[in-house]
Amino acid sequence: MSLAKQISAIRKLLDNLVGDSDDKRPIYKAVDLEKKLVTGVVMEPEIFDAHDDIISDIAIEDTAFEFMELYQTIGKQHSEKADAVPVESFIAREDMFIGDEFVFKALGL
Prior knowledge:
This protein has helices spanning 3-18, 57-71, and strands at 28-32, 37-40, 75-76, 80-81, 96-98, 101-103. With 109 residues, the protein is of the alpha+beta class.
């Protein structure tokens, strides 16, 4: 697949993951075309999300573990399955950078 087609496919995947959310913050922090990996924000602690909910860092960890154990399906607002699969889920244990992007402690990725 050409680089242009790969980038187009990744953009389409990201659009499908965000869906019709009014939350305009970017969800992805890094894209590795060679490995076909996208690292993105799933949940942020103590910040209103697209549904006006606030979630604690403890709940983020519990949810991340439950998701990987029981579901592992990603897609637009959890209603349409994306042409992708999660291969890793992690919680930022400290403030850090992923590529050039800053990530706060307890962020679910």
